Amino acid sequence: MPLWTLVHVGLLGSLVLQSSPAPVDPLQPSTTPTEFITSMQDRYDRMTVPVTIEGQGPYRFMIDTGSQATVVTRALSEKLQLPQIGNATVVGMASTARVKLVALDGLEFAARVFDNIEAPQLEAYHIGADGILGLDSLQDMRVQINFREDTIAVDEARRLGGNRGFEIVVRARRKLGRLIITDAQIDGVRTDVILDTGAQWSIANLALKRKLRANRSEVASSMDVNGNLLTGTRDFARVIKIKGMRLENVPIVFTDSPAFDALELSEKPALILGMSSLRAFDRVAIDFSSREVLFDLPPSSQTNIEIRMIDKASIL
Length: 316
Prior knowledge:
mainly beta; six-stranded mixed beta barrel; about 45% strand; globular
């Protein structure tokens, strides 16, 4: 029986700030072109899409660019009678856990069918959906989120309009399937940044906290994908600079996490940029095929995070 180690840097539960609750702005569904899948916002503010499995469904699966593997819940696995083929060690934000690994065929979404998937089995109340579409299902595609229209699209870049309309295009490097922006700066500190559609909040490691000398004591807590409690301290980054743009007043939770260790990012400053920060943009695209991350800036801020252009030469 195989034993896998899978890293899930996203999949945060509802994060509770002990001094002030985090606001939630519900999305309203809208009518969109056929190539787009209308998104549904679950209670953790993450985007989900309908999928079918061997013709059954649809089921709600979350698009998670921080999850190494496609995942099914225990309830769905038992309903579909998926065969167990081994075990996997899942690395969450707060913990590691041994889980069952099941065989999954006939997974269909966005006009594509995937077979021979080896999927970890997790509990539905830890992930807030019927399953997760992870990096093993996304590697040759672009994940494109339109926050103006509350839609998510997964397809080849050319079928989604290419780079047309995006103001900032950033090259990234690949590590364990993820795209990492390596030339970002947070309050003057060079930082590796991972865009994670499965994380509600932006999470930083303790190496960045030490560099920034962040000392606020507001405690934040969350349940990770394995059902274990993540705790950290909440502070604000004054300025995050990423090629030609700057984000101001960005809330960050600092914590010591085994996920940073698994990604070999515990010793140098690193940040997981979650949905609460990404929603400040009009559109965001993560293109695994070209290793590009694309941003479309809003005409005015729709959140407490301010976004400004700083380098006209970077506008494409």
